[in-house]
Amino acid sequence: MSNANDDGFLLDFLNPALMSSPQGEYAKARESGAVCRTAHTGMPVISRYEDVVWGLRHPEIFSSEMEEQMQLGTERPMIPQQVDPPVQTQFRRILDPCFSRKRMAALEPEIRRHAAELIEAVVDAGECDFNPAFAIPLPCTAFLHLMGLPEEELDLFLRLKDGILRPHQQIGTFDMEAGQAHRKKIGKEIYAYFEDVIAARRRNPGDDMVSFLLQTEIDGQRLTDHEILDVSFLLILAGLDTVTATLGCNMAFLASNPDLRRRLVEDADRIPAAMEELLRWETPVTGVPRLCVQDTEVGGMPIRKGEMVTFLLGAANTDGGEFPDADHVDFAREANRHLSFGAGPHRCLGSHLARMEIRVALEEWHRRIPEYRIREGETPLYSPGIREVQYLPLVWERAP
Questions:
Q1: In this predicted structure, what is the pLDDT of residue 17?
Q2: How many domains does the chain have?
Q3: Cα distance between residue 28 and residue 39, in whole Å
Q4: What is the CATH number of the domain that holds 32?
Q5: What is the pLDDT of residue 16?
Q6: 120: burial class by Cβ within 10 Å (0-12, 13-18, 19+)?
Q7: For helices 137-147 and 154-165, what crossing angle results, to 10°?
Q8: DSSP secondary-structure letter at 151?
Q9: Domain for residue 87, yes or no?
Q10: ∠ at Cα 155 (384, 119), nearest 5°?
Q11: Which residue range is the domain that position 143 belongs to?
């Protein structure tokens, strides 16, 4: 296979077909060479598993400290996602225990109760739009509780989150300048909101994330308000989006593949492995950006200092060089080292929470609604970037 991108292939991130069924485009990206480029900006894209892992493990070459245009409406880098080691390592050291496997397991009974409650609210209707009925409220309510934020303001938080991650939906255009201007406007709202939260927790601390951050020290120094704002900005985006997106992608796949779905219904013990395979195959967070800070090569292809680079996680996750029979969804796949939570020092902070929520959701849904399908004549609607299924009409036979 050639290392050169000599066939002129350009990856179109804004193509709706790429979002609904991206695996074919991922294959083209890998086959076109070690580095291809995007159709809209010419940004280098790295898509092969080995190269993606290598790049994400070398922040001294591919930095997370982004230029302004990649800061998603922020005035400073989001912490710890947009800072590099050793500063990033210091923040991960204090944040990782907050999202440990043991602490997330303690949340499971309440999340399971909430999942069952949401399902009972729709089961007799025989249909639902999965996102508002289940995929949004289940993880988002849990996350707001963790953050100590009011559940009744969920609609506000979703508007702010989508204004940063999907500005085109709110402004009606994919124009990059207009999108960035909208992000900056929304970013100011997020800062203002959390400035009020910080002031309130300083007066009246509680058992929540902001109160914890106010009491936290690094090298004997309390975190500054700016640092707390920058952590909170990241958490509100990640906590209210990626699990929702993953649940939608998983359910859309299972609704369209009844034979595989029935395996989970027949044996719920298969769900953890199936969840990992669906994370690999669907990969809701399709790629992550980095800034190249020194001239380098990937697979013999040059990347210049100052270029923004996308590491295409979805393509790496379907690379036959790492995954035998990569185009086959195998719920019994062994050694599933998928990259859906990233790799290297910036590997997803909330991976234990996400895995627990996804597993509980799949277990409870299939226990109560084992047979379901996409409503005839309807097509799920996917968003670009983070692959959220924004419209997923499911139907099932109501119990007699």
A1: 65
A2: 1
A3: 13
A4: 1.10.630.10
A5: 65
A6: exposed
A7: 100
A8: G
A9: yes
A10: 85
A11: 10-395
